[in-house]
Amino acid sequence: MESLLGHNTRRPDITFYRSGRIDITARIANIIGLRDGDVIDIGREDGEYYLYRLHKAGQTIGRHEAQCMSTHKGRLHPSRNLRAFSKRLTDCILSMTTKGDTARVWCGGTTKFDNGETAVIIIIPSFNLIKQ
Fold first, then answer.
1. Contact yes or no for 100/130 (Cβ under 8 A)
2. Which residue, 11, 59, 120, 132, is most buried by CB atoms nearer than 10 A?
3. What pLDDT sits at residue 97?
4. DSSP assignment, residue 67?
5. What is this structure's pTM?
């Protein structure tokens, strides 16, 4: 018998699109403490990639690259799923993961930086395991 789901049923935590769109699930936003208006970045140290908050919402003036926004602002209870746009970040991740237009990646454990910020480890597969 052939399985329709396959062996991997875990849903991605972050999705990167060729257009520069980055979708972050509510689980990851809660772990890092992201909220509407925060600016994210991806850092690399010792071969690991980390997603972290670069600037808090109240500390920025104007619009910024990779600034998070709620995916459903107009609701009574806005969504905790966040969206950001950064062509530079998505191009970097896509070049490492896939030749396609979308990279769906998972996050591992968390770590604390010296400044007290929490970051999550991004699991970068050598190829995209989830079919497009």
1. no
2. 120
3. 80
4. B
5. 0.85
In tens, the pLDDT along 57-108 reads 988 888 899 999 988 877 677 778 999 999 999 999 998 887 789 999 999 9
Alpha carbons 118 and 33: distance in angstroms, whole number: 8
Distances (CA, A) of 60 to 65, 112, 131: 11, 22, 38
What distance in Å separates the CA atoms of residue 53 and residue 65, rounded to the nearest whole number?
Answer: 12
Q: What is the largest CA-CA distance in the chain?
A: 57
CA distances in angstroms from 3 to 6, 7, 9, 130, listed in the order given:
5, 8, 11, 15
Tokens of residue 103, six digits: 């990279």
> On the CB side of 39, how many CA atoms lie within 13 Å of its CA?
13
| Cα-based angle 95, 8, 128 (whole degrees, multiple of 5) | 10
Residue 129 pLDDT > 50? no
Determine the 3-state secondary structure of 38 from DSSP: coil
Tell me, what's the pLDDT at 126? 62
Contact 127, 43 (CB under 8 A): no
Q: What is the pLDDT of residues 15-34, one digit of tens each?
A: 999 999 999 999 999 999 99
